[in-house]
Amino acid sequence: MSVTIKSAREIELMRQAGKILAKVHEDLAKVIKPGITTKEIDRIAEEMIRSYDCIPSFLNYNGFPASVCVSVNDEVVHGIPSSKRVIREGDIVSLDAGVIYKGYHSDAARTHAVGEVGKEAEQLIEVTRQSFFEGIKYAKAGHFLHEISGAINDYADRFGYGVVRDLIGHGIGTQMHEEPEIPNFRQRTRGLKLKPGMTLAIEPMINAGRFEVEWTDDDWTVVTADGSLSAHYENTVLITDGEPEILSL
Predict the structure, then answer these.
(1) 1, pLDDT greater than 80
(2) Are 50 and 56 within 8 A, CB to CB?
(3) CB count, 10 Å around CB of 190?
(4) CB-hemisphere CA count at 13 Å for 199?
(5) CA distances for 116 relative to 33, 62, 113, 161, 174, angstroms
(6) Strand partners, 169
(7) Per the confidence metrics, is the pTM higher than 0.70?
(8) For the chain, how are helix, strand and coil distributed in percent, rounded to 5?
(9) Is residue 142 very low, low, confident or very high in pLDDT (cuts 50, 70, 90)?
(10) Structural contact between residues 61 and 176, judged by C-beta atoms closer than 8 angstroms
(11) Helix, strand or coil for residue 37?
């Protein structure tokens, strides 16, 4: 497994990419309201990304037709924006977006509550977010990759949630998907030893029900097999000599 260690210059470029993506997510949060279509969210996202002289990482990636994945309610990830899909009060909406800045990628996802949502939905969003922070307690030089996976899994388990197994996090840099693969569920092995300069996209995808998922007919959109709600939280993280640096916050 060849995991790239980033130089100081590369880290600075990824830092800039992450700052831009954090701002894009912050601004997109303000446009998610009842009545907006997922296609309109995508149009706004692409405009924002390009306004920072960045390229949307997702657009045309393996044929994906949009700049942001917009996944609603039981959609886990990779929802294709559509002019027919209207966001409604009570929905939960996961936005997964990436930017390329001067050849370097940043990748991050957030799940948003639209207006008043049920207690279950609120808790799922918060637990998914917190599971990321539980995981990155171990994102430190000298620790092992799968300690991150175990911590995410253990936290979600406390709430009886299903941790998606068919989709995982990844290394990131000049490519959106690099080594290593980063599962969100407990592993039997320790995984690789973390070193300063590694950059990782850590992204818990948590279902309110069981962990199983299915792909829909568009071959992109992933949904929960039992129809339960799903949430997604992701950041690009730099391993340092000390605490991890979250580049996309």
Answers:
(1) no
(2) yes
(3) 12
(4) 30
(5) 11, 36, 7, 22, 40
(6) 182
(7) yes
(8) 30, 25, 45
(9) very high
(10) yes
(11) strand
Note the Cα 82 to chain centre separation in Å. 20
Where are the alpha helices (H) located in 96-191, listed in sequence order?
119-135, 145-157
Distances 11 to 6, 7, 197 between C-alpha atoms, Å: 6, 6, 8
Q: Which amino acid is at 21?
A: L
**Do 102 and 121 form a contact (C-beta atoms < 8 A)?**
no
What pLDDT score does 126 carry? 98
Ordered strands of the 235-238 beta sheet: 178-182, 169-171, 199-202, 235-238, 245-246
- Lookup: tokens for 98: 């990436």
Q: Which of 27, 12, 199 is nearest to 102 (CA)?
A: 12
Residue 86 is given by DSSP the state B
Q: What percent of the chain has pLDDT over 70?
A: 100
Rounded Cα gap, residues 151 and 131, in angstroms: 7
Cα atoms in the 13 Å half-sphere on the side-chain side of 80: 14
Q: Find the distance separating the first CA and the last CA of the chain, reported in whole Å.
A: 28
Residue type, 127: V
Q: What is the pLDDT of residues 194-236, one digit of tens each?
A: 999 999 999 999 999 999 999 999 999 999 999 999 999 999 9
**Rounded distance between C-alpha atoms, residue 16 and residue 100, angstroms:** 10
Residue with tokens 């009570």: 90
